[in-house]
Amino acid sequence: MASEEDYYAILGVAKNASGAEVKKAYRRKAIEYHPDRNQGSKEAEEKFKEISEAYSVLSDPDKRSVYDRFGKDGLRGAGYSPHFSSVEDILSSFGSLFDDFFGFGMGGRRRSRGPQRGADLRYDLEITLAEAVQGTERELELAHPVACETCQGSGAKPGTDRRTCPRCQGTGQLIQNQGFFTLSTTCPACHGQGSIVEQPCPACNGEGRVDRVRTVTLSIPAGVDDGNRLRLSSEGEPGPRGGPPGDLYVFLHVAPDERFVRQGLDLHVEVEVDFVQAALGTSLDLTLVDGSNKKADLRRGSQPGDVIVVRGAGVPRLRGYGRGDLIAHVKVLIPTKLTAEQEQLLRDYAASRKIEVAEKRKGFFQRLKS
Question: What is the DSSP code (8-state) at residue 239?
């Protein structure tokens, strides 16, 4: 496990280092601490994992952005898991990167032909604003390959085993010497797996995986926001040849709400009040995002655009303490139709304040007489 030392310090680069500089620094340290060059050194292996963890974050623009803003806690909160449990996990994650660094047969350690970790899966999920604020559980239906139960993912008929490919002797590669050059190609007999199935499993036809629909329960914590990502460990695709499954990454998309607009941890809402309520003040019932009501005072003489702030009625801080506020924006409604009595009351009020208003409209017969 990596220490609490800064990732930039681990690789020995500046915080404004370019991607090429990060890669160069990792190359230098990877050569120094690679387990194949430090046989039996547990310290070198741990150091190799540590620099690989740092590189996995700083070489990825998205992860690096989260790390720069929120540190390692931010990475964990966003669903990133940069920690590597083994050297093989590192080699599997970086793919051909080590071939570029070390060259074939130059200390890069050939990738294991045995069980390998499965691919990660992505699932896009739309939720409501209320679900994002309060948290919820969702049942996800996933349709993807899973390990064959009959052969336990090996692809071989029960009671039989895969055997080493006789053509490539288990390397998965065929080496051909052409003058001064050595050409490496994928073995066509085993397709690079290093082993073959003589008696295929009848349930999966030797693939080791079958298509299946399964249900996964996702717990969505209160306070998530649009674009947040949740990780479900070991819920991805099963690994080839009985390897461990990958992870499932759920990307959240919060649908627009008809009443509320979210800004950070605050919720904004428009509340309509009569002009008399704005002038004299009143007590309002504000509906919160969870559907409950909250009493709030509208002060006497409120103006259009004034706000009423309800502390702690906003969005809870994700994986933290405290929450935002509900901010109600006052919209004053002006009546468009008045009875004769209501109009006279307003005219009397205007006269008492010496406010000029339009003359009283004449009726139909009064207009004919004039």
Answer: P
Three-class SS state of 4: coil
Compute the distance between CA of residue 102 and CA of residue 213 in angstroms, rounded to an integer: 42
Q: What 3-state DSSP class applies to 82?
A: coil
8 Å CB contact between 107 and 34: yes
Tell me the CA distances in angstroms from 205 to 47, 151, 157, 160, 230, one per residue in order. Answer: 43, 10, 9, 14, 34
- For residue 104, give the DSSP letter: T
Separation of CA 126 from chain center: 12
Nearest residue to 215 via CA among 230, 198, 194, 232: 232
Domain with CATH 1.10.287.110 in the chain: 1-111
**C-beta of residue 7 within 8 angstroms of C-beta of residue 58:** yes
Other CB atoms within a 10 A radius of the CB of residue 38 amount to 15
In terms of DSSP H, where are the helices of the chain? Answer: 7-11, 19-33, 42-58, 61-77, 87-94, 97-102, 129-134, 275-280, 340-352, 364-369
CATH fourth-level superfamily of 1-111: DnaJ domain (1.10.287.110)
φ, ψ for residue 249, nearest 5 deg: -110, 120
Q: Where does CATH 2.60.260.20 sit in the chain?
A: 269-334
Q: How far is CA 271 from the centre of its chain?
A: 33
Instruction: Give the span between the Cα atoms of 235 and 120, in whole angstroms.
Output: 8
pLDDT tens readout for residues 277-286? 999 999 999 9
Tell how many helices (H) and how many strands (E) occur in the chain: 10, 15
Residue among 230, 269, 311 at smallest CA distance from 129: 269
Range 269-334 has CATH code 3.60.40.10: no
Diameter over CA atoms, the chain = 117
133 close to 215: Cβ distance less than 8 angstroms: no
Contact 324, 264 (CB under 8 A): yes
363 vs 370: CA distance, rounded Å: 11
Q: Are strands 181-186 and 173-178 parallel, antiparallel or unpaired?
A: antiparallel
Task: Name the 3-class secondary structure at 93.
Answer: helix
76-127, pLDDT tens digit by residue? 666 666 666 666 667 656 645 555 554 433 334 444 455 677 778 889 999 9
For residues 28 and 7, what is the distance between their CA atoms, to the nearest angstrom? 15
